[in-house]
Design brief:
Blueprint (H helix, E strand, L loop, with lengths): L6 H23 L7 H14 L3 E2 L11 E5 L2 E3 L13 E10 L2 E10 L5 H18 L8 H14 L3 E2 L5 E3 L6 E5 L16 E4 L2 E3 L5 E3 L6 E3 L5 E3 L2 E4 L6 E2 L4 H4 L4
Antiparallel strand pairs: 1-4, 2-4, 3-12, 4-5, 6-10, 7-8, 7-9, 9-14, 10-13, 11-12, 14-15
Helix pairs in contact: 1-2, 3-4
This protein binds magnesium ion (2 copies).
Length: 256
């Protein structure tokens, strides 16, 4: 069942989305070679609590950390660990908050130091595909229009789209209906309605689309060992234009 949100709901969700956006920027300021991903997790937890919110992922379905931190060939759901980031790594940081009964959820893939041209291009393409998807997020369109926009953009560049994990509705629950796949056919899927709030989150692999589950039961890895990028924003559906509730501005303009 799809739970539509009122104007008041969306305004609380906007607060959540901004908290997540600011937390990602705070984490980003700590990303450099030598930092462990567990240290980044601690930065995020402290920052979220300082805003008066709670980490949305901690304990969710038994997930044991504040952040999902997924380095290089880990697609999503990586555990923070003692791993020290290295120059040239790409690190997806996925963050959730819970505040006044609603969830926030967004993700950004950061470069560690200077990237190879190839890896920088993967990040750029994945982020652009997210904005292409968001461009389709208006009432009357369908989830397949979003998926098609993402998929066609990245596949034209020679990348592949993970099928097993998808975007989602969000609200009082982290994951609500509908599912928002990053692949699909135009004019197919669930029809978008005013009042829906969804997370669009392309997971784009440099090589093949196949993935497997890591031994810890959470981490999702690429089968071919090549890198994967992930960007996620939360979008409210309206009649005329998408309203993007979370933002990468704090990260990219280095502001807080
Ligand atoms: Mg999500
Ligand atoms: Mg997320």
């Amino acid at each position: 069942m799809i739970k539509l949100k009122s104007v008041e709901d969306i305004s609380l969700m906007r607060e959540n989305a901004l908290m997540v956006s600011k937390t990602l920027a705070e984490v980003g300021r700590h990303i450099e070679p030598g930092v462990t991903t567990k240290e980044l997790d601690a930065v995020a937890e402290k920052f979220i609590r300082s805003l008066g919110a709670e980490p949305g992922f901690l304990g969710y379905d038994g997930f044991p950390y504040t952040l999902c931190i997924s380095v290089n060939d880990t697609v999503v759901h990586g555990f923070p660990s003692e791993y020290k980031l290295r120059e040239g790594d790409i690190v997806s940081v996925d963050c959730g908050t819970k505040y006044r009964g609603f969830y926030g959820d967004s993700a950004y893939t950061f470069p560690v130091g200077k990237l190879s041209e190839e890896d920088a291009a993967l990040l750029e393409a994945t982020k652009t595909s997210l904005y292409r998807g968001i461009g389709q997020a208006v009432a009357g369109h369908r989830t397949g229009d979003i998926g098609h926009a993402v998929q066609s953009y990245v596949e034209n560049l020679g990348y592949s789209v993970v099928r097993e994990l998808v975007g989602h509705g969000i609200g009082h629950n982290m994951h609500e209906s509908p599912e928002v796949p990053n692949y699909g056919r135009q004019g197919h899927g669930v029809k978008l309605q005013e009042g829906m709030v969804i997370c669009i989150e392309p997971m784009v692999n440099a090589g093949r689309k196949e993935i497997y589950l890591a031994d810890n039961g959470w981490g999702i890895q690429t089968v071919d060992g090549r890198k994967s990028a992930h960007f996620e924003l939360t979008v409210a559906i309206h009649k005329d234009a998408p309203e993007v509730l979370s933002t990468f501005e704090f990260i990219e303009n280095n502001q807080l």
